[in-house]
Structure formats: structure tokens, C-alpha cells
Amino acid sequence: MKSDLSSRLNRPLTIGRATIDRRLVLAPMTLLGHIAFRELLAGFGGYGLLFGEMCSARRIPQEAYTGSAYFGWREAERRHLVMQIFGADPTAMATAARVIEEKGLFGVDLNFGCSVATICKQQCGAALLKAPDQAARIVEAVRRAISIPLFVKFRTGWTDDPAIPVDLARRFTSAGADALTFHPRVAPDRRSRPPRWDYIRRVKDAVAIPVFGNGDVFDEADCLRMMETTGCDGVAIGRMAIARPWLMAQMAGLLSPDTGIYRRTAFALLDLMERHFDNRRALRRYKKFALYFSANFKFAHSFFKRIGNAPDLKALRGELEAFFSGDPETMARPNMNFFL
Ligand SMILES: Cc1cc2nc3c(=O)[nH]c(=O)nc-3n(C[C@H](O)[C@H](O)[C@H](O)COP(=O)(O)O)c2cc1C
User: Is 215's C-beta closer than 6 angstroms to any atom of ligand 1?
Assistant: First the structure.
């Protein structure tokens, strides 16, 4: 199975005018897919693209000139990095996309999937799935502004009907998108019910551009099953890539994890975060990471509580030492949905 999976994943894929050499990508995740985490992931390899944290389109022109925690990257990752933007105004979205192109990044991703109330109230994210004409105007405006690959990430919509994402996918394609990432859940559903992978197949069959399937890929068997049953061109992995930053390398056949990988990874990320962020940001973001990383352990709550209660980075480092000195038992298949 493994070689079947890795041979599927290690194939080039053309997206617009560019080509990537592997078909696994890191899904965009706020406060998780930051520069330090991406550096950790890059050390393992196995991915075709990395999607950054979502950024407000209105803020990007200013952020581009500051040492932003969100809108920043290492020189070495620029050609694999796609920045995701959210917004409701086509002109502001086009301006932000142009900045991303000028910075030499791989591509721009439009967030049409975030269902958090503060985003939807501004008519951004998943709210745009209720306004498909406006969503298509945004895609058109961004398309006119850039020549680098343009991605759209979206969900099923607000009602559980496969005709909705099929229609949206066609509209986004006609408006100029180069690739789609589709997470087949309705917008108010914050990962409490399983995603409808059969809808990915319908979206894939409806358009000629590459489609990345997304949602509940936790291990190699899931990844192979998603590719086989949906025909998707690639797979975007979110939470499980946080829990096991080596997972994409493992799926691509580049490594077999040993038992020490959990400890080494936990400390490596802490070191990177101390290097990239101030103490306050590093502490907050490490705690967010720990929520997903803890799912690896039989006593997930014990790990998360220790890290969650640490008042500063020094205490956090001490808690990591204490936790790993107890030789914690790991889970073959972590329950990511436990954390939503
Ligand atoms: C903490 C967290 C933050 C997220 N932030 C974003 C985001 O900024 N933009 C986005 O399009 N999706 C975001 N997502 C959704 C993921 O990209 C992905 O669609 C979802 O987690 C399902 O994939 P998974 O089952 O592989 O985790 C976020 C998910 C989580 C858990």
C-alpha cells in the first residue's frame, strides 16, 4: 500500500503555469501553519506546497513592510509557499494578491471556507458561499491582477447538497481559478460530522483544473482511500500534519518514524519558535500546537494540561522534559476529531 501511495503522491502536478513535484500540501491553518512550523515541516519534506496562515487582504499592503508574524517566510520556502487571503472586496483582494506575487511566492489562495462568526459577519470566508456572484467577482479580479497560480479553498456551502459545491467549483473555474481545495463539510459544521468525500468526487468530475481533497486524512490508508475513491489530484492535510509534522514525508516514502521522533519534534519546534517569535507569541502558538500534538499520546490530556498551564517558555521546556522522561505511550491512530 505504501509504495502505491508514495508513487501516487510523488508525481508532478501542473497548476496554472507552474508545476509542483509532489501532491501533498499543508492546509492553511491560523496560528498553526506559521513560519516556525513550516521550517520544522520542511526539515522532514514530502510536501508539494505549504499554505500559510490566512491574512486579511486589507492588511497585507501594510504587513508587507513590517516583520509580520503572519505574513512572513524564509527565503528557502518562497517557491513552495501559497499565502491565503480573506476579504469581501474584489479590489482589496486583487491588491493583496499582487503584493504576494511581487514577493515571489508560489501562489495565492482565496479563503471561501472559514465559518468563524467574526469573519462571516464581514461577508468574508464561508459567507461568500451564500453570495456566489460576489465570490466569482473576487476570483475574476484576483485573476486579472496576478499570473502566479490562483487557488480557491471552499466548503460544501451552508446546506448539505452536493449540487452547491459542484456549481461553485464550475463558477470558480470559469472565473479563472487554477486549482481548488475542497473540504466537503457544510459551513456551520466545525468538523463534528465526517466530511462527505463522495462530494469531492463530484467536484473533481465537474471541473478540468486540479482538485485537492481535504478533510479527516489521518494516516496513509486514509490518504490512499481519498485519492482512490474521489479521483482528487492531490490531498491537503491539516490537523494531522500538525500532530505529526513528519507525516507527509512518511506518506511520500521518505522516512519511517522511530519512537524518538515525538520528543525530538516537540523540542525542535520549541527551538524554532523561540527563534522566530517573541516570547508571548511563541508561548501562545506552542500551546495551540500542543492541542493537536497531544492527540498522539494515550494520555493526551496530561500532555496538554502540562503545556497549557505553563506560564512561560522556560516552564514549558521543563514540562516537555518531564513528560518525555516518563516514556509516554503513543497512539497508532490519534483521534483528531476529539479536539475539533
Ligand atoms: C485551528 C485551525 C485553523 C484553521 N485555519 C484555517 C484558515 O486559516 N484557512 C482555511 O482555509 N482553513 C483553515 N482551517 C481548516 C483546515 O485548513 C482544514 O480544512 C480542516 O482542518 C480539515 O482538514 P483536516 O481534517 O486535515 O484537519 C483551520 C483548521 C484548524 C483546525
Answer: yes
> Domain ends where: 251, 285, 301?
251
Cβ pair 311, 324 in contact under 8 A: no
CB atoms within 10 A of CB 257: 15
The verdict on the CB of residue 217 being under 6 Å from ligand 1 is yes
Determine whether 223 is an active site residue: no
At which of 227, 251, 275 does a domain end?
Answer: 251
Q: Which residue, among 247, 235, 335, 236, has the nearest Cα to 291 in the 3D structure?
A: 335
Q: Tell whether 295 and 214 lie within a shared domain.
A: no
Average pLDDT value over all residues in the chain: 95
Which ligand 1 atom sits closest to the C-alpha of 125? 11
**Rg of the chain on CA atoms, in Å:** 19
Look up the pTM and report it.
0.97
153 and 275, same domain (yes or no): no
pLDDT tens digits for range 129-171: 999 999 999 999 999 999 999 999 999 999 999 999 999 999 9
Residue 33, domain member (yes or no): yes
pLDDT tens digits for 192-207? 789 999 999 999 999 9
